[in-house]
Amino acid sequence: MTSSDGGSMPAGCEDYEAYGVHEGGTVELYGTITGVEAENLQATFDDFTNCTGVAVTYNGDDQFETQINIRVDGGNPPDLGIFPQPGLLQRVVGTGAIVPAPASVSDNVDKWWSADWKNYGTVGSTFYAAPLMASVKGYIWYSPSDFAANAYEVPTTWAEMMDLTATMAANGGTGPNYKPWCIGFESGTATGWAGTDWLEDIVLRQQGADAYDQWVAGDLDFTSPEIKEAFETFGAIALNPDYVNGGLGDSASIVATSFQEGGLPILDGSCSLHHQASFYESQWPEGTNVAPDGDVWAFLTPPMAVGDPAAVTGGGEFVGAFNDNDATVAVQTYMASDTWANNRVSLGGVISANKGLDPNNASSPVGKASVEILQGEDTVFRFDASDLMPAEVGASAFWTSMNDYVTGTPLDTVLSDIENAWP
Q1: Is the dihedral of CA 79, 83, 87, 88 positive or negative?
Q2: What is the rounded average pLDDT of the residues 282-304?
Q3: Where are the alpha helices (DSSP H) in 76-131?
Q4: Rg of the Cα trace of the chain?
Q5: How far is CA 255 from the centre of its chain?
Q6: Same topology for domains 14-135+315-381 and 139-312+384-420, yes or no?
Q7: What are the residue ranges spanned by the domains of the chain?
Q8: 180: which of 48, 56, 206, 319 lies 20 to 30 Å off by Cα?
């Protein structure tokens, strides 16, 4: 990439030479990220601006999913948007407002990301948006001291996890209303999304990546035997009164329990296991030691059988451009690089699937473990299915029907309701 104004970079800018000098360039970056994470995101451009002359302003908005459409329709899009779901990216690409990614961005993604991640930023046969940050879903949180006191071992297969669950139910715990599992689905208007995460983990592990992809695309119906089996596998935990909902109530209490509070009974011994993503680390009370020998730790949801591939679900963001100005291209290229990933992860709180990221830059042991999982050559990664499905399904019927399922609606009705919502 050449300098647009013929200027030269200050000393100490070797990491930014590829982006050129664009004195007076300005770029607006717009996304859902707010609070401390927004401040850290903005900080990743301090050195970049000093070296390239491009002033980057990040604007965070928790109404991004709605406002980005309004801004596009009004002819006032940002220079770059950070899209939290591939489905939303695809809808905005459909307006014609987003430009294809330039060669410099595509080259960075080919170098630093897996083909799966590039595919999530591709619409049709055209690549538009580079991946940015990521999360690993499907962790099982537990108390190392609880495991040590009872000689429990981390299960290596789903069957071992069910055997462990039965043993825990028989042994009981130290807290009130003990059950092995504690689960929380409540999340305001998004109540039920935590349940879809369970199903996604099971479908990927039980039915395989090809079936998962067919399910996401609508080619494998919710009423199919494969998806029904996955629901029944989840139901063997969630609908068993001997297994849930430790410290919180019965199966119906799952819907009334917030996802933030769902795992907290582990701390008082009212439950032993909680399924939630890597980002649940931030939900533990201040002072909780999250470590292999700490108050809580986590293992990845195990495969169905020995020898199955290391499969993991997760989420992430994608950076799409609304113009091909030199300054915009420079910023988008930088954000697709290993330099940006290491700069941002070093500031704490997030991880990335960028293969050039040093796992040691992660701010916690869970973060480091998650980076290593994402970078694993044998890891089969699939994006959160509900985020890929049409909104009528993934962000509506699938959520609400998970709530119906754990509160007693017959499974065939649940599956038909979701399938009938498919546009």
Answers
A1: negative
A2: 95
A3: 86-93, 103-112, 115-120
A4: 22
A5: 21
A6: yes
A7: 14-135+315-381, 139-312+384-420
A8: 206
- pLDDT, tens digit, for every residue of 20-62? 999 999 999 999 999 999 999 999 999 999 999 999 999 999 8
CB 205 within 8 A of CB 271: no
Amino acid at 133: M
Cα(38)–Cα(40) distance, integer angstroms = 5
Contacts (Cβ under 8 Å, ≥6 apart) of 253 = 245
d(CA 252, CA 289): 31
228: left (phi over 0), alpha (psi -120 to 50) or beta: alpha
Helix, strand, coil percent content, the chain, rounded in steps of 5: 45, 15, 40
Evaluated on CA atoms 31, 134, 218, 410, the torsion sign reads negative
Say if residues 157 and 303 touch (Cβ distance below 8 Å).
Answer: yes
Give the sign of the dihedral formed by CA 195, CA 196, CA 201, CA 202.
positive
356-371 pLDDT, tens digit per residue, is: 999 999 989 999 999 9
206-224 pLDDT, tens digit per residue, is: 999 999 999 999 999 999 9
DSSP 8-state secondary structure symbol assigned to residue 383: E
For residue 206 the two structure tokens come to: 């039980």
Q: Specify the residue for token string 């002359």.
A: 53
* Complete DSSP assignment for 237-256: HHT-TTTS-TTT-STTHHHH
Distance CA 235, CA 202 (A): 11
Give dist(CA 50, CA 347) in Å, integer. 19
Q: Which fold has domain 14-135+315-381?
A: D-Maltodextrin-Binding Protein; domain 2 (3.40.190)
Give the CA dihedral 162, 164, 168, 171, nearest 10 degrees.
130
Check residue 303 and report its DSSP letter.
P
> Which pLDDT belongs to residue 5?
53
Q: Are 234 and 204 in contact (CB under 8 A)?
A: no
The CATH number of 139-312+384-420 is 3.40.190.10
Average pLDDT, the chain: 95
- DSSP one-letter code for 134: E
**406 vs 255: CA distance, rounded Å:** 8
